[in-house]
UniProtKB/TrEMBL annotation, chain B:
Cofactor(s) the protein needs: thiamine diphosphate
Organism the protein comes from: Arthrobacter echini
Gene, per the UniProt record: pdhA
Membrane-spanning intervals of the chain: none
GO biological process: branched-chain amino acid catabolic process
InterPro entries: Alpha-ketoacid_DH_E1_comp, DH_E1, PdhA/BkdA, THDP-binding
Domain of life: Bacteria
GO molecular function, one term: oxidoreductase activity, acting on the aldehyde or oxo group of donors, disulfide as acceptor
Domain Dehydrogenase E1 component: 74-358
NCBIfam families xrefs: PDH_E1_alph_x
Record's protein name: Pyruvate dehydrogenase (Acetyl-transferring) E1 component subunit alpha
Keywords (A to Z) from UniProt: Oxidoreductase, Pyruvate, Thiamine pyrophosphate
Segments of this protein annotated with the region Disordered: 1-39
Amino acid sequence: MTTTTPARVKEFRLPDLGEGLTESEIVQWHVAEGDTVELNQIIADVETAKAVVELPSPYAGTVLRLHEAAGTVVDVGAPIVSFEVAGEPGAAPAITPSVPPASAPTTASDEHAAPNPNPAMDSATDTDAATDAAPAKREPNLVGYGAAVEKSGRPQRRSRTRSVSVPETAAPAATPVTALEPPAGSSAQPPAERPRSTPPVRKLARDLGIALETLTGSGPEGLIVRDDVLSAVGGSPAELPALHSSALHSSVAASDSAEPTAGPTAGVTRTPIRGMRKHTAAAMVASAFTAPHVTEFLTIDVTPTMELLTGLKASRAFEGTRVTPLTIVAKALCIAVARNPTVNSSWDERAQEIVQYADVHLGIAAATPRGLLVPNIKAAQSLPLVELARSLGSLTETARAGKTPPADLTGGTISITNIGVFGIDAGTPILNPGEAAILAVGAVRSMPWEYQGAVALRSVMTLSLSFDHRLVDGEQGSRFLADIGTILRNPAMVLTMV
Amino acid sequence: MTQDHALQGSEFHGGPRVPGAGTASGTVLPGPAHDGADEPVQLIDRHGVRHAHEHYDGLVADVDGAELRKLYEDMVVVRRIDAEATALQRQGELALWPPLLGQEAAQIGSGRALREDDFVFSSYRENAVAYCRGVDLTDLLRVWRGNASSGWDPYTINMATPQVIIGAQTLHATGYAMGILQDGDDAVAVTYFGDGATSQGDVNEAMVFAASYQAPVVFFCQNNHWAISEPVGLQAHVPIARRAPGFGIPSVRVDGNDVLACLAVTREALARARSGGGPTFIEAVTYRMGPHTTADDPKRYRDANELEDWASRDPLARLATLLDSLGLLDADYTDAVKATADAIAADLRQGCLSMPEPEPTDVFKHVYSAPNSWLDRQQDHYERYLASFEQAPQEGSR
């Protein structure tokens, strides 16, 4: 099954890094093909349903091949790196680099699954397990719980090893084997309950590539016995090659992947919808189609705010603190919330209640390498400006570093999205699920604007506010937006508002 | 004898008892300097400065430079073992591993105080204690690789295999210590557990029995601040050491990251137990710097600043500083220590990878010490069942 090319190529398969995990995402590679690595050198960061962990290299040698790109979700047991290992004479047979092996059958059903209709409120619990778990359930992420069951496939078993010299090589190579009898009904229908049989017979069937579902048991109460399996094989004209357990899987994989993606077009990349993307999508859909959105726009001359910023930057109190238009907008929003509290509330469909929050837990949408996160600043209304500025700075930094503590990702009451950093003026933001309002802050532009009866070049910004019309009427939303505008137009107006 | 002890125990009411009082042999050490006091005993501070201590200095008077170096080497080695085992888990060679990172001083300091005939009952994190007891490192990994139900014969190193049930080992230790009393021996049972375990009924029951029988048992609690994801303050509104006097057990709080202080307080507790002074409770205040196990991600529940604070109290770093200030940390020495640690780690890896997998019928071993006909029958059935797998390929490929 394997050729005897130069030995010492070792394959590293993704281990179960927690207890009972079925897959993990490769977040980042720390090595490239051709790199020399030492034993236990960190080669990758891997995110499981439980933790982001560092993978230490199991071998000293050269990285021959990285089988999976960063960002890929890999099944436990699938090869991820091949090493060329110095020393260790001729123990390991060569690995034939080939198509990623039988990972397809188990993932297929997962991918076809419908998007979760009930996304959790915490829009940023960023694991697959979180995505798939019902919101009411506590996510089992600690010792002894194991990951949420996501797969319909059977658990993958690690091949048994007897000694060092013959490690993973005992695992089957991924050469597709022609099925002797294509399993009937292998298409989209959910698999029927597995017919009754005994473990030895199941193993025989698997070895011979016979799907038990296609057999009728002749044993007591329909039990499938050895003879049923063997007679199913008997009809086949093909010779019986040395089969192993991957045979059935491979054949299913082949037929499954052939149908939906038949005739792949050049220039088209198909990426499975998973992880953060899947979760974000579900949250957005839920928000957009449960909360009737109203969006209002307000374009204002923020020159006085920009002047205020210049003053703050020069002041000793703000030394070393990053103050930006967002800082002032955040403060203005907190002040405006105090005057228009309905925007800081939540619609509790189940309890048939409107939840009004005393504190402003201010969410800030952050684009991170792993996707959209909305960490929030707790009780933002109570923070003096300098602390608010610092919180904003550290919040996004922490989020980008992937280190936001879970508590900061839940419990937000209202959000800001800063689209101005991308040079955008306005948009219709979609509410963070469970919140009643979201403010998009546009770019500050130098524009000709009416100023003291003449046209002058002024700093102008557009604010876009979406609110949940179930909770917030046009009047309240408009007043809220106007209040923010008033402050940004002339920060001194705060004196009249608090 | 046992009855006497029980009666004597009942004489003490109110206030922590003075060890040695009420026992025939009054040859014990002076009363504990810290009877449940909150300030931990410390001999080496976080900056590696040795502080004199009127009570505990005498207990470690024999620890000279050479002995300090040995303690340092022990700690480097066990940290290396821990790192290697963690890597092996990440590489899929172990199913799970409970790291001890940060708790080296508590375990080495106490472990090195023990006599060969003392008996240890530990939880699953006391791999450094097992190292002190002379465990075969391969045996240490067997359970975590899923190759055996337990790693070693407890009587070969006088240490029971790790207890996974939280706190249950304290009962085993107390029972063993009651046995020592019956034998009239002067060995001591030492049990290790964490701050979370003190909430378990077992631990409290063990303390009641230990006090009642004045059993020679040392309760060594490593307060590593986290019971998986629950901070210690949630379960202990006062220092844990303060609970023991309520059971009539003298207690001491020690800086668990100070190997010398841990050695000193453990020696004191052992001496008390050997001389008929009964149990002692030690709370070693330390910190679990890693995850609860390799399947846990502490970043999800604890503040990175806290980790930083404790990193500045690292048990190895402070001893290195002390050795350096004594002129004992030359390059030759540190290189030799590193080489030792690396060699041990390489052995550990080799032992792990070359561990033969158990046979299915191994499950029948160690059930009874003598032959058992019912079990033999079950084994026979099972073997015939296993054989039925083997028939498959031949028939299939006729």
